[in-house]
Design a protein that fits this description.
The two termini are 21 Å apart. The protein contains 4 helices and 23 strands.
């Protein structure tokens, strides 16, 4: 049965047919999986308090390519961007919605030294690292768009990554947080559960199940090697009821925008739930500027975040504009320019890398926007 596309915010720079099937096939260059185990608007019984409590931060993939370049010119191409948007419904956070009492265990195998603001590792990539101040900032836009992603890696156990809401029903994360890189359907992880503004075992805006996941061929056929040209993925999220009215996740949290081809040169706020800092129980933020590029198609920034921060957004011009604030040559507020993809084995270098968002990102987003009316 054909339905007219009602999504008014599908990206205008891609031609889209006026009628589409409810479940469009993914465009070439991607691999996807539909969630057949959880019906729409329902909650999986898999995630017991014990499983949530014992889920471990997914280790950051370690870089294996050594082709490092320090560029002096911007990336080539015309960036494509979309604006972020604050929540459209007023849903107050509910920290009584306690999922479990978090473990007070540091999952890091090596104890990191305390990192001070304006720090740098041995490679000289400067950054500032901090808890949110105050901690309750995680319930306010734009922080509340960021959350913790729980999932199961078959045969390995339960793990956590990070992610961010970028459209009314779409969450962005890393490719290695949804797929092993083995090249086929069997590589997909399962039991995805996204908790925006997660803090200390609580889900202040509820826990959201998934209906569809998609990642790039570059990641799924890359054998887990990083840097990777397109280590990112997206999940379609099921709606949830609030006071008897079903809401899309982006209505509740707001959404971050994006900007392609803008990772170098730039500066950004890196957000996520690293297991080495506050045991992954609180959202963490790093501010840094582009440090160097690395083949293929990746850029590195200074950071002390490690496993669990994978998939977290790198956001340019993060925050809320002040009265009288305008101008500049790159004014787009709250736009994602990358997501955490990899980091070094040793704790001393203190940097993380991200794939550069390009046409693959845009095509993936359009695929999800077309899949179901109201996704975007």
């Amino acid at each position: 049965m054909m339905q007219k596309l009602t999504c008014s915010c599908v990206l205008s720079f891609v031609a889209i047919a006026s009628v589409l099937p409810t479940a469009a096939i993914a465009a070439p260059g991607f691999i996807f999986k539909t969630n057949d185990s959880v019906s729409a608007n329902s909650t999986s019984s898999y995630w017991t308090p014990q499983r949530l409590q014992n889920a471990k931060p997914l280790n950051l993939p370690k870089p294996t390519h050594n082709q490092i370049t320090t560029q002096v010119t911007p990336l080539v191409g015309t960036p494509i961007s979309a604006s972020g948007q604050a929540p459209t419904v007023n849903i107050p956070p509910n920290f009584q919605n306690k999922l479990f009492q978090p473990n007070q265990v540091n999952f890091n195998s090596v104890a990191d030294e305390a990192v001070q603001p304006n720090n740098a590792g041995s490679v000289g990539a400067y950054f500032t690292s901090s808890r949110l101040i105050p901690l309750s900032a995680d319930t306010v836009y734009p922080y509340r768009t960021v959350g913790k992603l729980f999932f199961t890696q078959p045969g390995q156990g339960d793990f956590v990554c990070s992610g961010a809401v970028i459209k009314p029903r779409i969450v962005l994360t890393a490719g290695h947080c949804v797929h092993s890189g083995s090249g086929d359907q069997s590589g997909f992880f399962t039991n995805f559960l996204f908790i925006p503004a997660y803090r200390d075992g609580a889900a202040p805006f509820k826990s959201w199940s998934w209906s569809y996941v998609i990642t790039t061929d570059a990641w799924s056929k890359g054998n887990g090697v990083v840097p990777n040209a397109a280590d990112y993925a997206m999940l379609e999220i099921n709606d949830l009821p609030f006071n008897g009215v079903y809401r899309k996740i982006g209505q509740v949290t707001g959404v971050l925008g994006f900007k392609t081809l803008s990772l170098f040169p730039n500066h950004a706020t890196l957000l996520g739930y690293p297991g080495n800092l506050d045991n992954g129980n609180k959202m963490h933020q790093v501010t840094a500027q582009s440090f160097r590029t690395r083949n293929p198609n990746s850029v590195e920034y200074g950071s002390d975040m490690r496993g669990g921060s994978s998939g977290g957004p790198w956001v340019q011009n993060f925050g809320v504009a002040a009265v009288g604030q305008n101008g500049g040559r790159n004014p787009g507020l709250n736009q994602i320019i990358g997501v955490t993809s990899y980091g070094p084995v040793a704790t001393d270098p203190l940097y993380q890398g991200s794939s550069i968002l390009d046409s693959r990102f845009v095509n993936m987003l359009n695929t999800l926007c077309k899949r179901k009316p109201g996704n975007c």
